[in-house]
């Protein structure tokens, strides 16, 4: 009887799992000049190396205003023994090409001045704490912006908590050859887009997107009324950070503070 029940449960569960897997379609963005992909950035970030930790790492960020990039905090957060020394930003990278010359921010003092993370975030804090505050703001002053770069409000930063049950879109730069048992030959040079649903959990969310290293900092947005409204940031496999009203107000506070200093 137990064997029969087990077989029946497999017959019921397996098609559902397969259906969910097929719903996630990975699309390579071949034209990064299109809105809003022209505001998504490949990031190459160098940390001071302690033993085997540190060195260069790939990630994703995206413009939310002319002079500001939003990304995951763990990409750029600095603290004792793990300080960011250099940030390279390639807007709309597409293989060996990109839309504009690389933005370079170099030096621990400059980076500490231009990068903001929440006081609630820290590498040594538990996962349940970090996931709620895993977002960061990078300030790009006018003198570092590439000539010819334009901002046309491709992304909209507003309270999107009412949109969390809608179809969510995500795009970023995965930099992993294999995800599970499938080899996608990703090296961080191509932008990958997908859409689906998330499960809100307060200040964070769960998801079924196919992501890997390099996707950290990818924007999550909902397209509504001709606007691409940011609702969250991809931070971990299976989960990420929501831009709820509290986080939104903190980001806006940082933007004013950095512009006035």
What is the structure about, briefly put?
This protein is 20% helix and 34% strand. It has helices at residues 2-23, 73-76, 108-114, 127-130, 245-260, and strands spanning 27-28, 40-50, 53-65, 68-71, 84-91, 103-106, 115-117, 136-139, 168-172, 178-179, 182-183, 192-196, 198-200, 204-207, 219-224, 227-236, 239-242. The chain has an 8-stranded antiparallel β-sheet, with no helix packed on it. Strands 6-5-2-3-4-8-7 form a 7-stranded antiparallel β-sheet. The chain has a two-stranded antiparallel ribbon with strand order 10-11.
Summarize the topology.
Elements: H1 2-23, E1 27-28, E2 40-50, E3 53-65, E4 68-71, H2 73-76, E5 84-91, E6 103-106, H3 108-114, E7 115-117, H4 127-130, E8 136-139, E9 168-172, E10 178-179, E11 182-183, E12 192-196, E13 198-200, E14 204-207, E15 219-224, E16 227-236, E17 239-242, H5 245-260
Antiparallel strand pairs: 1-12, 2-3, 2-5, 3-4, 4-8, 5-6, 7-8, 9-12, 9-15, 10-11, 13-14, 14-17, 15-16, 16-17
């Amino acid at each position: 009887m137990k064997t029969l029940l087990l077989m029946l449960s497999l017959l019921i569960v397996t098609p559902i799992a397969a259906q969910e897997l097929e719903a996630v379609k990975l699309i390579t963005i071949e034209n990064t000049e299109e809105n809003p992909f022209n505001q998504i950035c490949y990031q190459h970030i160098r940390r001071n190396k302690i033993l085997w930790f540190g060195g260069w790492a790939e990630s994703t960020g995206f413009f939310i205003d002319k002079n500001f990039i939003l990304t995951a905090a763990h990409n750029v957060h600095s603290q004792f023994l793990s300080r960011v020394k250099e940030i390279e930003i390639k807007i709309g990278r597409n293989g060996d090409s990109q839309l504009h010359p690389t933005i370079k921010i170099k030096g621990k003092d400059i980076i500490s001045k231009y990068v903001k993370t929440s006081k609630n975030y820290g590498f040594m804090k538990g996962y349940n704490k970090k996931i709620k505050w895993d977002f960061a703001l990078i300030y790009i002053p006018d003198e570092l912006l590439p000539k010819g770069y334009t901002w046309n409000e491709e992304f909209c930063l507003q309270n999107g908590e009412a949109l969390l049950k809608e179809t969510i879109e995500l795009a970023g730069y995965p930099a992993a050859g294999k995800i599970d048992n499938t080899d996608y030959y990703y090296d961080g040079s191509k932008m990958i887009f997908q859409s689906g649903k998330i499960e809100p959990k307060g200040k964070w969310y769960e998801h079924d997107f196919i992501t890997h290293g390099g996707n950290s900092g990818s924007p999550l947005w909902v397209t509504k009324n001709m606007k691409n409204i940011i609702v969250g940031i991809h931070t971990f496999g299976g989960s990420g950070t929501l831009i709820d009203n509290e986080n939104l107000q903190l980001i806006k506070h940082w933007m004013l503070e950095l512009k006035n200093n």
